[in-house]
Amino acid sequence: MATTTQLRRAVASSFLGSVIEYYDFLLYATASAVVFNKVFFSSLDPLVGTIASFGTFATGYLARPLGGVLFGHYGDLLGRKKMLVLTMSLMGVASFLIGLLPTYAQVGWLAPAGLILLRVVQGISVGGEWGGAVLMSAEHATSRRGLWASFTNAGAPCGMVLSTLALSGTAALVGEKAFLEWGWRVPFLLSLVLLGIGLFVRMKVEETPVFEAERKPGSMPLLDVLRNHPRTLLLGIGVGLSAFVAQSTLTTFILAYGVQAGNSRQTILNALTLSSALAVIGILGWSAASDRFGRRPVVLAGAVLMAAFGFVLFPLVDNGFVVLALVLGQAVIHPMMYGPLAALYSELFNTGSRYTGASLGYQLAGLGAGLAPLLFAQVQRSSGTGAIPFILAAFCLLTVVCTVILRETSRTSLTGDRNAELGAGQLATPPRAHGAEA
Questions:
Q1: Cα–Cα distance between 307 and 330 in angstroms, integer?
Q2: pTM over 0.85
Q3: Smallest Cα–Cα separation from 58: which of 430, 406, 367, 422?
Q4: Using alpha carbons only, what angle is made at residue 173 by residues 168 and 178, rounded to the nearest 5 degrees?
Q5: What is the pLDDT along the chain (438 residues), one digit of tens a residue?
Q6: CA 6 to CA 308: how far, in whole Å?
Q7: Taking every pair of C-alpha atoms in the chain, what is the biggest distance, in angstroms?
Q8: Lower Cβ count inside 10 Å, N or C end of the chain?
Q9: CA 11, 17, 22 angle in degrees (round to 5)?
Q10: Cβ distance 256 to 381 under 8 Å?
Q11: Nearest-CA neighbor of 310 among 387, 212, 412, 406?
């Protein structure tokens, strides 16, 4: 009963923590597409201002691997829970301070400089949050690990829903002029309230039994990953990269492009809200399917479908079918690539370096989400959107190749380093099968 109770608390904490982290992190993403180019880069040409805004958006993703290494290292040495309390606190405070920043018109270059600094703090925070949140669920689970771990990933679209509702709701209440003057700050200031709720829930979760049983003081997790698992790390990055490129294409770049194509900002935000809400169901559903059919088949199917979908995405938006485009892309196809990643990354590494390895692999893949809007905005500026589907398809092809090479992980144990290597133990298939594999 205690194990079940702790699993429920761990899953709830991971989900809620992820919602709060991604509310803050993706609130910035939405604001960078519709607000920051006017507030912090008002002296620039509108399209150049959008590119500059996406550039500050990208800095958060560039900082995420640093957060993964930093918090992963101490999470593998001191425990998952302690690091998760710290990452949540950092994110909440950074987002609150963004809501207090002066504009470019008030202080000049200091405004975007402060914005970039706080965005880096956000990136470090979310870089450390994901790995620990996933492991809190995965290491407490004794079955259906793909489903339980995926609640962390499901928190991302929930955070997107909340952040989009907060921005669009504030805009509707105060009007366009007031929204650009001060209304955009309100959703950022609310981060402090969410932080208090999240910390209250997180403090009730115990450290994972897997970590407690195999704690190794004095070890060097990063060195272990780089020295003993470089191939696994690189393949893991390749598996996840296209999911992040597709994610930011559907949730960030399309916002700016859709408005340029003649759709109203509110229509785009409404479509994003609906597709993000439905994405939660998609992530949990496809992750549960990966427990039954394996991580690889689900991710492969998603990558192939996303490569094809890229060629109809922009025509759909151009012709006013924004809702259909985002629901198909974000709520149906993307979750196939993204949902199983939570369990997959946690299954690739041993307990002593699992937080570091999972975080580093996931966050390096996550660079695709930060750089894609910036890359696509530059491509659009020079030659239109015609090349973008081919770029997206190329990333999907990389995922297909890496997924085919990578071993299936869904039956891997997390209960012991030796057993984990052989795939024997918790959630494992009968020993005879593993003897044949070994």
A1: 13
A2: no
A3: 367
A4: 90
A5: 557 888 888 999 899 888 988 888 778 777 776 777 667 655 555 655 566 666 666 677 788 899 999 999 999 998 888 999 999 899 889 989 988 988 777 777 787 788 888 888 988 998 898 999 999 999 988 889 999 999 999 998 898 888 878 888 888 888 878 887 788 888 889 888 988 988 888 888 888 888 888 777 667 888 999 999 999 999 999 999 999 999 989 987 887 788 888 888 778 888 888 998 999 999 999 999 999 999 999 999 999 999 999 999 999 998 889 999 999 999 999 999 999 999 999 999 988 899 999 999 999 998 888 788 778 888 888 887 888 999 999 999 999 999 999 989 988 888 654 443 333 333 333 333 333 332
A6: 42
A7: 70
A8: N
A9: 125
A10: no
A11: 387
**Residues 373, 254: Cα–Cα separation, whole Å:** 9
Provide the residue count of the chain: 438
Q: Are 299 and 403 in contact (CB under 8 A)?
A: yes
- 247: which 2 tokens? 């994610």
d(CA 56, CA 41): 11
Q: How far apart are CA 330 and CA 324, in angstroms?
A: 10
Q: What is the torsion angle, in degrees rounded to the nearest 10, for the CA atoms of residue 303, residue 305, residue 310 and residue 316?
A: -150
